[in-house]
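Hey, I'm writing a tutorial for new members on how sequence and structure tokens pair up, and I'd like a real worked example in the thread rather than a made-up one. If someone can provide the structure for the chain below, I'll link this post from the tutorial.
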Amino acid sequence: MRRAVACAVALLIAPLAARADGPPEPSGGALEFKKVERLHLDDIHPGVGGERIVELYVRALTRYGIPVRGLGSGSIEVWQDDERVDPEDVELVPLEATGRGITAVLAIDASGTMRGDPFERAKEAALAFLERLSSEDRVAVVSFAEEVRVVADFDMQRAETRIALRELAIDLERSQHTLLYDGVHRAVDLVRKGTHVPRRAFVILFSDGKDGGSDRSRDQVIKAAAGSGDTPQILVFSIGYARFGGGGLKDLKRLSDSTGGEFLEAASMVYLQDFFDGIATQMMNSYVLRFPAPMDGEEHEVRISLNKLSAKGKVLYPEISGPIWPWLIPLAALLLVALGYLGVRMGSRKGRLAIVSGPLAGTVVALKSGKTRIGYLEDNDITLNSTTVSRYHAEITSRGRRTQIQDLGSKNGTRVNGQPVRESPLQPGDRIQMGEVELLYEG
């Protein structure tokens, strides 16, 4: 039911509004993959680590922008100029399996027309975005009105960034104009000057109006975001709120289309967090594709294809001499990291429960493989010392990629996101209510 609701939201408002789930596991054990209907080649990185290797950053999405997971190395064909790369030389690894993380800058319009609900909703969506990030991810925040301000840079601790976001306010005396392009250019510049930030970089831009007096032009922003060789492509995802007729929405769309990102129109603030969440889901669940190539100092066209879909780009390869076999060493290291990650995901790591309210508020408990029983008595796996919790209240079962909760006939019942359930699947971010105790499921 919840997955159907997510798809309905996607149909109504925008491709990125729905959260992505992993591929379902049928009883036969084989994975059933969603259909790839959109293929994006976001970035080309030749000469990785001084070796004769090319890395591609790829998004494989359904029609509604939901990432397709579980693609193997033979899923995507790679062409260099007009010659197909030997499939045995191509490796496709989920970005999350590499341990590299993402680099994101949130650029928020703080002009006077944003005051009230739009601005507060934008802050809430940005705060929720932060909760999705792992320790490998880097994030910064920029606000713009009559001036551009770095609210939080990449060197700030995550807790400090949260505080800075909560305290972000509109200065009514300096908020009459919207230096939109200057704000986005500053966001891109933060990535360019960032040290030890992941290459997978993007900007989430939220605004309700046209640019009003920026020193930078849209074309200058597009040029700054363009990738080339060691310089990564920075995608700009823009969310436009048509509060006063939507005069600037076309400009936002042109900006996103030209940088490889996507434009979303928020007809209502209700779905703003879904937009932020959908963008994060796309980027976090993208792929890294690697193959050996001659680093000859020449420009080459790289093309990828899957079924009838294709995407391509041109890049100048650096000139690197020496045998081609050393590329296998970093590739082997990457595969070891990926295998280790998958072992953790399929093995002991089954998610966590954060206790939000009640006597143990602030406690985080790791779920074990199999069944985790929750209740008032001490012999439960998780003991909740509350008279509103039954002796054996509920049970969470984790198998493979599936996690679900079952009420054990408790007196006060079990609710997931406010709805009473007897049995329900769990997804990261779901809130569980047992009597007076509220818990947050973290995948």
